[in-house]
Amino acid sequence: MIRIRSSRVAALVFILCGFGLCVPFVAFAAGRAPQATKPAAAPPGKPLFEGACAVCHGMDGSGGNGPNIRHAAARLGPNGIEDLVKVGFIGSGMPTFPQLGDEKIRQIVDYVVSFDQEASGTQPGDAQKGKEIYRSKNCSQCHIVNGQGGNLGPDLTRVGTRLSPGSLSDAITSPGLKLPLDANLAERAAFRAYLMQRAVTKDGREITGLRVNDDTFSVQLRDAGGQIHSLRKLDLQKLEDLPGKSWMPSYKDGLSETQLNDLVSYLAGLRGAR
Amino acid sequence: MWNAGSYDPETNTLYWGTGNPAPDWNGDGRLGDNLFTCSLIAVDANTGKMKWYFQFSPHETHDWDSAQPPILFDAAVKGKPRKLVSLANRNGFYYVLDRTTGEFLTGIPFVKQTWAQGLDAKGRPITLPNIEPTVEGTLVYPAITGGINWNSPSYSPLTGLFYVPAREAGSYYIKGEEKMAPGNSVGMVGGGGGGAKFMTGDDVYTTVRGLEATTGRKTWEFKMTGDAWTGTLATAGGLVFSADAGSNLFALDALTGKPLWHLQVGTAVRANPITYAVDGEQYVVAVAGNSVFAFTLPQVAQAPQAPAQGH
Which chain B residues have a beta carbon less than 8 Å from that of A14? Predict the structure, then answer.
């Protein structure tokens, strides 16, 4: 159960008890592509981000108790990020930061935008070739990209903003892989949504499907035919995880290392229809 | 101090749990017990003079402060009536003390913990080797957020149970450079001297547990899906209210932990549910996101146990 990926080590979580929040922030200190050249001066948004945002989003924005925002710029654009910082997100735990003022908020936004630029420049293969592999391996039979494809598996339109190249590679070669202990919140959410589960009701009915959603009192499973079953946990005699099981075949032997890298690069570049 | 304390009007005493020492994860520059951090402090409400203290975690290095709300209750211990204060500590242990003297009576883990062999006769932890934060990270239970955090437990004199919102998880604790400087506060960037990385996975869950208040023995638990951050409310009607991470506000049977009612309120419930009466009518109120949900029972001769929805 306990497994750390060597590619993503040393993360730091601090606690900001003074805020009464006591939520962790995570800083991935190693494992990202090392930058050969050091910038002359730290951007002004960096200390502000580390003081105000890292508590939830991690020192490098890759998430902790809050979501991974390394690709927020691809999804929201600088103005969208600025709006979110100013207005907050009620009910999510994302507060507003009136004490910072417009100038400092813009510096933070610039810094968040720089994550996205940095992260998109480190792909392991050729995305164009990867797109061709995606087509030839019929991935769209089960996955949607920009509205096209089947919905048995996860929609991949924005998968590059959710999963790191390492996690994408794992998902292709070992579908249904057990959740790595160091997965960030977004990765956890993606994993939970596509875990296979087997439910047995008290009257003996058996349903195996992908977990679409669950909470303390209910679970929704999507079966192989695409039908969604909403079940009350009180009505179940058994609900078991089927880790390692997936309807997706493994492409461990079906792809060369180069092809895998190309496919990963294509998927890592999928960052939302624009 | 960053959480609520308790007040005993009978003895005019305030009880407060204190925070952890800084830098949080690097104790090299602060040898010794670091009094009065990670302690429960009894203070005379008029003079502010300390009556007694009890330190839960001497020389703490995992960010487990002891700011959790103390609960005051009276009960018999080994056949003798005692005035007690109990605290479910972030370090994973549940403690019962005599609230007039600070004498340690009982302490047992209420979640998985891997840092102490146990507590000695005075309540001081007997720590295990290899639990200190390291540069590469040391896996220790409970997690950085503790066996409990700010969310309040509750107690019912009807059942004699202590209802703790417990967190089952571990963390990799990382030792960093010590950078404490005047003005840096606990846990802040530059002041923490390290950090921790969260563990996630199947062993990680939150739960409401009914502990026998005088011993800490678990009598039941209600396991939740996801990472809940809500305290508990025990009522004289034999209910325990709380909420899960999926925005379900719920009521449990205070004696058995059996779920009796729940309502999907649509957004996170992070504050404790509360209850009060106006003109003899009892309300239960929970804050969810930017909404306040209030509930009361229907006006019937024989009210059912579970509350009906109102708004």
Answer: 24, 187-189, 192, 195
Across the interface, of B172, B199, B248, the residue whose CB is closest to A216 is B248
Among the partner-chain residues A1, A26, A54, the one whose CB lies closest to the CB of B201 is A1
Q: Is the pLDDT of residue B211 over 60?
A: yes
Residue B63 is a catalytic residue: yes
Tell me how many degrees the CA angle A124-A54-B166 measures, rounded to the nearest 5: 110
User: Which of the residues B24, B33, B63, B120 is marked catalytic?
Assistant: B63
**What is the total count of domains within chain A?**
3
Alpha carbons B258 and B247: distance in angstroms, whole number: 18
* DSSP strand pairing (B39-44 vs B50-55): antiparallel
Cβ pairs bridging A and B (under 8 Å) = 128
pLDDT confidence of B194, banded at 50, 70, 90? low
> Do A226 and A254 fall within a single domain?
no
Instruction: Tell me which of B64, B184, B200 to substitute to probe the interface with A (most A C-beta atoms closer than 10 Å).
Output: B200
* Integer Cα distance of A240 and A262 in angstroms: 35
Residue A20's contacts (CB-CB under 8 Å, 6 or more residues apart) are B2, B3, B150
Residues in A touching B224 (Cβ below 8 Å): 216
With CB atoms and an 8 Å threshold, state whether B259 touches A20: no
Instruction: Report pLDDT for B240.
Output: 98
Q: Which CATH class is domain B6-224?
A: mainly beta
Tokens found for residue B175: 């030792």
Q: What percent of chain B has pLDDT over 90?
A: 71
Whole-number pLDDT of residue B184: 52
Q: Where in chain B is the domain with CATH 2.140.10.10?
A: 6-224
pLDDT at B161 over 90: yes
- Are A217 and B200 in contact (CB < 8 Å)? no
Topology of domain B238-311, per CATH?
Answer: Thrombin, subunit H (2.40.10)
A136: CB partners within 8 A, 6+ apart: none
- Nearest residue in A to B227, CA atom: A65
- What pLDDT digit, counting tens, does each position of B244-291 carry? 988 999 999 999 999 999 999 998 898 899 999 999 899 999 999 889
ipTM of the predicted assembly exceeds 0.90: no
Domain hosting A137: range is: 127-189+247-268
Q: Report residue B69's pLDDT band, with 50, 70 and 90 as the boundaries.
A: very high
